[in-house]
Amino acid sequence: MSTWTDPQGRFSLVLPEGWLLDESDPLVALTSPEGDFALWFGISQETDAAEAVSQAWGAVGEAAPAPQAVSAAPARPGFDAATAFSYPPDGETVRKAIVETRDGRLHVTLIRGALAALDRRGAQINIAATGFRPADDDSTDLAGITPDPLDAADFAALEAYVADNLAGFDVPGAVVAVVQGGDVTMVQGFGVRAKGGIEPVTPDTRLMIGSVGKTMTTLMMARLVEDGRLDWDQPVRELLPEFAVADPALSETITVRNLVCGCSGVPRRDMEFLFNAADLDAEAVIGSLSGFEFFTGFGEAFQYSNQLVATGGWAAAAAAGADWGVLDAGYAEVLEERLWAPLDMTRSTLDFAQVLADGNFAAPHAPHGTGERRMLPVEAEQMLLPVAPAGAHWSTGADMARYLQALLAAGTGTDGIVSPASFATLTTPQVPVSATMSYGLGWFVEDWRGQRLIHHGGNTIGFTSDLAYLPEADAGIVILTNAGRANDFAKAVRHRFLERLFDLPEAHHAGALLARTEAERRGEELAAATPVDAATVQSATGRYHSDVLGEVELRSEGDRLIFDIGEMASEVRVDPVGPARWIIWSGPFFTSPLVFDPEARTLTFGEGAARYVFEAQR
User: Fold this and answer.
1) In what residue span(s) does the Beta-lactamase-related domain sit (predicted)?
2) Which of 169, 395, 475, 515 is most exposed, with the fewest beta carbons within 10 Å of its own?
């Protein structure tokens, strides 16, 4: 990445690698290497955001599209306010506009391009959008500042904040743990394990942690590296001879590091294990990689692949002695031996049967078209087991507090679970994600107001988690919830903790409320989705087959059309925004688009790079 400064000294941009800068027009343009995606930036003389956006679209040669929605958005540091303009789908083209205010000046960003390009270069688009900064940015700089210990008033404020916001964010239950100065200074449960129930979430209640489990996988790998059993730069094929991707040359050279760096260029392909979860194990998932192609070169753009990270965990299991055919069990064993047992994390597990037998676990709750989350059976989360090292872990607030203690000890150079050198390897940026954040080996590494903030979130079907810590400040927080897609809540709690830690004003909550308001608006929109008409239901019902995702069924239940993949069934309704298509109205694929072609007798699920076509079985 490099930085460009406006010759007039009004703003600066961060340029993603390989993108073309054009400053010849009224707006400065950044265009992707393929030319299929562009962002424009400039300062408007208008005082009205809508008029500023309309003029900006005209300046780039487009009639101003009618926005689908105009809403207040969280203001980024350096800006006073923000307004987002979203537009309905236009074939394969996506558009967005943002107006950010700084001392009365309107900073305009236009975004337009191919949906496939958004999948391919989403991180670079994020770098460009977040790298647009006002020249007189005076955001608070906390570099080099060591915070005072949190006191009773701080913890009371944090506890009240969590308790007060559970219902507002539709989160049934949560547990929060705080570590500072090597000590667990807070670990407390809030709310209930299941909607409508009375059993409380406690520090010992098991919840799924989703992709926070990736950090456990890479930390376990680091321990094996220290023991000489594994090397970050050894070819994967030395450990897993059956490993292959679509490119034969890359199959030979991809290293263990490449599997967990987020920098390989492999796009996210979650549907390929979710749709076939009941029939997949570690060896089958590794075999499926032979069809994986790379969108970009190594290190060019951040891409998130659960299958690659999972393969990193299985490669580590092989390095520790697990044979082909028992890699899943081998991973669970080495994770217990190298991480959970040494840290006394006795209630962390990958075993669903153990969780169900224990009783003290939280139920998952997933978004629904009615606008509120609904409880799912715990068994629904077993769809994640095919990529277990990437995020099928269960843990508790108490266990995660011990884990956070170990991370902070490693980061501060004291007696940690790994050496300071290994910790540095895990948290060294490998590929940029935004203008201020990169991905390491299983960790996001962010420059937050001059402090190094290391973190990772986790999402399953019905759980959301967040773990974040500042090594130089020797403090961190864990948030676990039994609500799917509750990132706004988790991040709001994280930022409230950071504000209390550094005695900052309660500024982030306003942005969290705006995000919640926008989610509620979208929820109201989805709640208006109508059932598929009876005639179409009759013509569409039947079984469909995809060479990649296998067989699914469209069936009717009364006047409802049901999309059934075997592992999970969800209702389908007409998309209120794009009536030419349907949306999944409930379950794990909530809001995913579905298009039925009665002439071709095909069913298209998803969009962009994650688009799959099913043909009717006659």
Assistant:
1) 162-491
2) 515
